[in-house]
Amino acid sequence: MPEVALRSVTERDRGLVWHPYAPLDGPMPYAAESASGVRLRLRSAERAAVEAIDAMSSWWCAIHGYRHPALDAAAHAQIDAFSHVMFGGLTHEPAVSLAERLVALAPGMAHVFFADSGSVSVEVALKLALQYQAARGRPARQRFLTVRGGYHGDTFAAMSVCDPVDGMHSAFPGVLARHLFAPRPPAARLPLDRERPAASVDEVDAWAAGFRELAQRHTDELAAIVVEPVLQGAGGMYVYDPECLRVMREVADEHGLLLVADEIATGFGRTGRLFGCEWAGVTPDVMCVGKALTGGYLTLAAVLTTARVGEVITRSTFRALLHGPTFMANPLACAVAGASLDLLALGWQDDVARIEHGLAAGLAPARDLLCVKDVRVLGAVGVVQLDRPVDVVRVTRAALARGVWVRPFRDLVYTMPPYITSEEDVATIGAAIVGAVQEVHGR
Question: Which positions does the record annotate as the modified residue N6-(pyridoxal phosphate)lysine (predicted)?
Answer without folding.
Answer: 291
